Amino acid sequence: MSLRYALLALVRVGPQSGYELQKQFAVSVGHVWHAPDSQIYPELRRMEGEGLLAGEEQTRGERGTRRLYHITPAGEQAFLDWMASPPDYQRVRDPAHLRAAYLEAATPAQGRAFLRAHIAQWEGELEQWRGELVRIDAADNPMLVRRLAVTADEDRERTIAYKRFAYEGLVERALGEIQWARSGLDLIDRLEGAEEAP
Amino acid sequence: MSLRYALLALVRVGPQSGYELQKQFAVSVGHVWHAPDSQIYPELRRMEGEGLLAGEEQTRGERGTRRLYHITPAGEQAFLDWMASPPDYQRVRDPAHLRAAYLEAATPAQGRAFLRAHIAQWEGELEQWRGELVRIDAADNPMLVRRLAVTADEDRERTIAYKRFAYEGLVERALGEIQWARSGLDLIDRLEGAEEAP
DNA sequence: TTGGTCATGTAAGTCGTTACATGATTGG
DNA sequence: CCAATCATGTAACGACTTACATGACCAA
Fold first, then answer.
1. Which Pfam families does the record cross-reference, listed alphabetically (chains A, B) (predicted)?
2. 20 to 30 Å CA-CA from A123: which of A46, A182, B70, B181?
3. Are residues A33 and A102 in the same domain?
């Protein structure tokens, strides 16, 4: 149930429409917490109903409208309460390692395909997260720039440092997954004989 | 939807009751894929309905019964098909890194509490997974022993090696998470000043 | 005038969580 | 005889997925 806190983190930097928030999910928080629009719009309505956000109907052109959401004091407090609350961890549920534990039931080719897919998956994530680190350093992330604009001077270093910290952790994790899968490819070579040239 | 494949992996070594499978989840596959009994019993019934398992009603004492599940050829094939299928990855949804990215909104004490909880969480997992490695090496895991008993000699090495491979990956991941959180504690010290003695 | 993007949802279904519910058997 | 453990579920709810649905605005 972190979706609402991800949304609060975004709305905290300034009023936004559902559409803007949904787009931000694709490029900033979304690198850490994915959510589709079909989940975001109803959640914003719920949060408005609970008083965490205030919605403001705006006109757009002749007949178009959009709804700008502002954070309320209750919303700000909910975010701070969440930051102070003990984290909740999901029980482990890891399809990749589950499958890896039974690779003797696969052919060597299937095992290699699986591990290569794992590498490709994490290389994709790695690229996202490294890109985000670059954008943080270049002050090139629009949300971070907006955030820093409303942040007191003495808090800018901290804001940037914690963001770097989060993404560095993700980069390390991705590198670990890739290294693990590579060692799995080596293991298959040792156990089943090296792969024939295609 | 890996639950049924985790169950198939277990039933593949020999007939088991729902209760036994549920217990195995606590000590073997459960280290990789958690599932509560309230999910396991209905899933077994569904799998029986789909012909992946064959259930056999047994009497226990005077009036007690239990249901033994055998894997069917269709079940075996479903497991092998799953091993050969491209893995599916969930979109990223990581509450810990989400929170880490906004730690400037927390007090130093809250930030430290969060990171310490993260360390405690992963030290718990680490202990589980290292324990599992020890049991693999000592041939002390009942499911693995049963598995090896029905495994051809030439396949034993592979069976053990892949299991080690899976758990070694999890151990590395846990170590990475712990290292990350420790570096976060150092970061808080640098940014906010070292913690006062309690 | 047309295609992209702005804008906001609904509906059906799956997976998982938490809590509740019940009763039999067996070993000490 | 009593506690542990064997044994099997149901019910309600919440989070997320996938697919569908609609329409306005704007720039080329």
1. PadR (PF03551)
2. B181
3. no
